[in-house]
């Protein structure tokens, strides 16, 4: 059992002061200066450098002791960056790091001794280390010499560094590498130095994480799907989800309209005097709906009646004189024709006057706009004034925008979601689809779709809402990329 380490109280006080300095740093540059320069109070060293991990920016030496700012193009800084990259990779592999810490010849002797000791012992498969122990080994600092580096880097060691160095990895709470700090001096590093810098590295990592930008959802997804079984499973699940068939649907504004309504038109040219029926009023067959101004027709009828009476008197006198005078007998035929013309004009004027008051030809609900919009309005013969609809005989009229047309065909189903009843839904089946798109009152070019409701429950006449039209089944990938592809083709012209 290892004896507990004895740490001087002054070293703990310096550790506390350096931790406070790191937490009080206002920027990442200030924190880097504290790391590479003020740490000298905790343990003596000749050189120190802070290397930023590639997760933030391309791996680079961010601070060097004794310099206000590091020059990326300097030979020493470039060599130092290569060394830190090697050390950062080895920090993630404790076994490779332990092998690199041994001096020349120790690896061979250790392996030979292991073979000798295993010669008489039964073979056993070593158990893998526990995950907490591996994480602790990854975060712990370790001392190394030139023998731990590849030959090209070790050849330049003596030109830049003293004999002994210490690597202090910086790991955040999520296990990601934030970089590391390397110290170099002439004397070997002690276990007390490693323990003190390990505690200080936790403070530095926490401070650096506060300055680091928040990872985007793409970076978090990339971290969650790092190489391994988890990524393969996620990719397989995503590929399977993209081929899952889903119904191709489209949303369209819709309104409940009367089916086969009776159109009430103006019987003649004139001005609407007053509307007797009110909007959405139930009327019986023969009930008055509206009346036209009869002033002009009444004058014409009175004139026609006067002309008819005059023609009738002239014909009577001529008929009496024709008994004794042949000349009057010839005038009697002329008077007879004038009397018949007056009678026809009187009959026509009387029938026109009778049509001034329009009645309902059948029972129903009067559907029209505000009565004030019609009172005093001049109408021509045949102009539509209102509709007579049966509330129990309704249909759905939807407007499918031309850009969202999904090959809607008769026989397809749709669902109406009324605005007035957010919890209600009504199913319908499409009867007709207009082949030609026309502008709607909202200024959108759309296709008119008419559908009949399925089932006993029907929405009230005039209800408005949104209709979800169900099209054919397509893969999920097509459902997601249909609009972007259509927009790209229209923009690119292919």
UniProtKB/TrEMBL annotation:
Gene3D superfamilies from the UniProt entry: 2.40.50.100, Helix hairpin bin (1.10.287.470)
Principal localisation: other
Subcellular locations according to the entry: Cell envelope
Composition bias, Low complexity: 97-119
Region (Disordered), start-end ranges: 94-136
GO annotations of cellular component type: cell envelope
Classification via InterPro entries: UPF0194_transport (IPR050465)
The organism's place on the tree of life at top rank: Bacteria
Keyword Flavoprotein included in the entry's annotation: no
Alphabetical UniProt keywords: Coiled coil
Protein name (Swiss-Prot/TrEMBL): HlyD family efflux transporter periplasmic adaptor subunit
Taxonomic lineage from the root: Bacteria, Pseudomonadati, Pseudomonadota, Betaproteobacteria, Burkholderiales
């Amino acid at each position: 059992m290892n004896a507990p380490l004895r740490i001087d109280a002054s070293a703990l006080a310096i550790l506390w002061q350096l931790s406070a300095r790191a937490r009080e740093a206002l920027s990442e540059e200030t924190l880097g200066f504290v790391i590479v320069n003020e740490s000298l109070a905790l343990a003596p060293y000749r050189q120190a450098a802070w290397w930023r991990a590639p997760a933030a920016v391309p791996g680079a030496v961010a601070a060097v002791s004794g310099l206000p700012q590091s020059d990326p193009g300097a030979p020493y800084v470039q060599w130092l960056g290569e060394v830190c990259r090697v050390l950062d990779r080895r920090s993630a592999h404790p076994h490779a790091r332990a092998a690199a810490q041994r001096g020349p010849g120790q690896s061979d002797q250790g392996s030979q001794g292991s073979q000798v000791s295993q010669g008489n012992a039964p073979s056993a498969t070593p158990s893998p280390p526990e995950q907490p122990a591996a994480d602790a080994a990854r975060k712990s600092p370790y001392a190394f010499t030139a023998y731990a580096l590849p030959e090209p880097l070790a050849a330049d060691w003596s030109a830049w560094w003293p004999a002994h160095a210490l690597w202090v990895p910086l790991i955040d709470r999520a296990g990601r590498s934030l970089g590391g700090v390397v110290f170099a001096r002439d004397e070997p590093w002690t276990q007390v130095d490693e323990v003190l810098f390990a505690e200080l590295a936790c403070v530095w990592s926490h401070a650096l994480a506060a300055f680091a930008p928040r990872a985007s959802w793409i970076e978090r997804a990339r971290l969650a799907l790092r190489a391994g079984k988890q990524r393969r499973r996620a990719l397989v699940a995503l590929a399977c989800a993209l081929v899952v068939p889903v119904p191709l649907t489209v949303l369209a504004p819709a309104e409940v309209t009367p089916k086969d309504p009776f159109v009430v038109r103006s019987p003649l040219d004139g001005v609407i005097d007053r509307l007797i029926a009110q909007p959405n009023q139930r009327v019986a067959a023969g009930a008055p709906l509206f009346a036209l101004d009869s002033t002009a027709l009444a004058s014409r009828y009175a004139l026609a009646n006067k002309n008819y009476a005059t023609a009738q008197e002239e014909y009577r006198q001529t008929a009496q004189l024709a008994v004794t005078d042949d000349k009057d007998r010839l005038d009697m035929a002329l008077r007879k024709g004038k009397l018949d013309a007056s009678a026809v004009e009187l009959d026509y004027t009387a029938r026109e006057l009778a049509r001034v008051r329009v009645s309902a030809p059948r029972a129903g609900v009067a559907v029209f706009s505000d009565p004030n919009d019609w009172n005093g309005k001049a109408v021509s013969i045949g102009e539509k004034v209102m509709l007579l609809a049966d509330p129990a005989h309704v249909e759905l009229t939807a407007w499918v925008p031309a850009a969202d047309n999904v090959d809607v065909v008769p026989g397809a189903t749709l669902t109406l979601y009324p605005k007035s009843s957010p919890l209600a839904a009504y199913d319908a089946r499409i009867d007709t689809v207009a082949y030609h798109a026309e502008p709607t009152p909202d200024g959108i070019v759309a296709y008119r779709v008419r559908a009949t409701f399925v089932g006993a429950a029907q929405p009230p006449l005039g209800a408005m809402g949104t209709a979800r039209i169900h099209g054919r089944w397509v893969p999920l990938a097509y459902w997601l990329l249909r609009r972007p592809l259509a927009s790209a083709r229209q923009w690119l012209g292919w």
